[in-house]
Structure of Threonine synthase:
Amino acid sequence: MLYTSTRNSQLSVRSTEAILQGLAPDGGLYVPKSIPHYQGDWETMSKLSYQELAFQILSLYFDDFPEDILQTCIQAAYDEKFDDDRIAPVVGLSDHYLLELFHGPTIAFKDMALSLLPHLMKAAQKVLGRDEEIIILTATSGDTGKAAMAGFEDVTGTKIIVFYPKGGVSSIQEKQMLTQKGDNTYVFGVKGNFDDAQSKVKELFNDKDLAAELQANHSQFSSANSMNIGRLFPQVVYYFYAYGQLLKQGAIQAGDLVNFTVPTGNFGNILAGYYAKQMGLPIDRLVCASNDNTVLYDFFNSGTYDRRRPFKLTISPSMDILVSSNLERLLYYAVGQDSQAVKDLMAALQDEGHYQLGQEVQAAFDSFIGAYSDEAETRAEIKRVYQEDHYLMDPHTAVASACLGKVKDQLAGESIVVSTASPFKFPAAVLESIDKGDSHLSDLELLEAVQAANGLDYPQAIQAILEADSRPERVIEVEEMETVVREIAKG
Ligand SMILES: *Cc1c(COP(=O)(O)O)cnc(C)c1O
């Protein structure tokens, strides 16, 4: 399997190289030159464990990894760190199913890929005969930073440095990061917003002098962001797994269509669903669910992508985004894999803040429906599902669930909502939605109230922040980021 860049079809690398690089040198995203077809039959697939299925699917994409090494990576990723041995269980509500992707170490869906990525990076180095120290730089709006630190914790030959906007993440998210273990993990609050931290990280990545210094020190930067194929393809697995579970539960017959509704931010999760469909999984439509930041809803309904709009803060912060990076991969397929066309569209987005697709290209988006749920609708959905099913959803999942309700008459087959976080991660918003909110409650009291409402034990991730010691908080100016990165890289 060879990978090329969405912005330069001349480029051609193997998966090991693409995983270590993250982004292509031209700024494009790596895409496989052809999408493999899943060869198995659905009945047999439904009997596989998550790990067995992960191996079947990932060996199609990561075929330059020796099979035993890929197996070892998968076993190390999907182990007791997950609190359910199905890894990604499907549960039934009265009007649809939920694919729960929050049973990993940080109780958000980023764990599905970030548990595996560090192992893939180390293995890729081994295959390519390299041994530089890998330094991961990440700016986070909350979930990615913690999941990446948990994934890289004590992985030899790696360091991870996370920057989060001080005051811009939830109190639970901050605690999760400050109680992170591992001698190779570093976390800083930055006086600025997420974009300030993100821009600085990008600048450091592109700094040629810094890169030369690192090389002299036998180390290199790498990225754990969702554009890395080492994050994208592990996410394809759970779409197949969900289908297998519905089959096993007798909810569908082999070959029946199903549809997925995905709470979307950077377009990584739903894009994995698109790959699953292209590989032959019987998916009818993929519903792209947005919150009040409706840039993707507008795009799917008009063919115009326009980031020139206010950024809205919502109770589903991991979906607060104006530029969905992974959409570039879908565009690449939409324009018939014409990398020059993608390059032009991305330049227009960068320089003018928008682009417009023609009618013929829009036809390629038939697999998708765009929908959105505003704040009031999202809260009402949390309450409705709690009252009807005694199930407490997190706000991201609730956005998707509400969106499904709006477009259900356009869909065929059983409906699966992709559930991306545990309600314990966003207790204040969840409690407010079921009329049990109180701004005076401490974090501990909020968590206790969620527990009283859903009757579930604390996940391990919550237990950990209640018990573990916090490291001293370090808050720095944006201008200091470069200095701390240099110090950590050297030390
Ligand atoms: C990251 C995240 C999303 C958005 O996923 P994308 O792959 O960026 O579209 C949705 N919900 C939660 C809880 C997340 O952490």
Observations:
- The chain has two domains: 90-107+230-448, 133-217+459-490.
- The domain at 90-107+230-448 is CATH 3.40.50.1100 (Rossmann fold).
- The chain has a mean pLDDT of 94.
- Residues 226 and 268 are 6 Å apart (CA to CA).
